[in-house]
Amino acid sequence: MGLFDWFRGSEKTFTILPTDTVVFIVGPSGSGKSWFMSTLLKKANIHVTVSKSQRPGTTEVHAERCQFNGMQSDIVIVDTPSFCTYTDPDGEDVVREWMKSCHPKPCKVARMVYMHNLASNPEDTNLRMSNHLGAFRRAYFPNPSLRTIHVVPTLPIGARLPKEKLRTLTTHLQRQANAEGARLHDTFDGEPETAWNIVQELLNVQEIGKQG
Q: How many CB atoms lie within 10 A of CB 57?
């Protein structure tokens, strides 16, 4: 039993409370942020297909307040716009303004799921994890010490990469995760239970007060 089994539903929110546990979904354009969130919430209307395009599919912050059977506090899942795209609107500015309006004070717990498309160009400096985490940290003034990050690789639907190339790309991503003190998960399979298991491991549910 876990978050997948306890999940009751969610609603869009514009307020982060001091008692909230917040999970930010961060990553380059086309990395699967909105896909991961829609899989968690089982809401097709916020689904964005993973692609190789660097034009951001998400240009605003989307926060969903999730309720769970037997849990005293909510978990707020926050889908963020892409950083380092050099197109308007600037993702860092959008997140900073959202923080000022919706999240002006620290929350109970803050964690991050970082998405990365393995089929993207590993030589593109705009896709480096350190650049995106740096942009997020500059915008996230309520708790600049957020350090718990789990990295989730994705692949576009229908992508076929040779095993050796996939191994090389995964090793490259692992080095970036190690440099940030982050944990690397297996490639996301698009299943809701897998998505919630990732969030559950990220949060360690025992720490946020599961009440049976």
A: 19
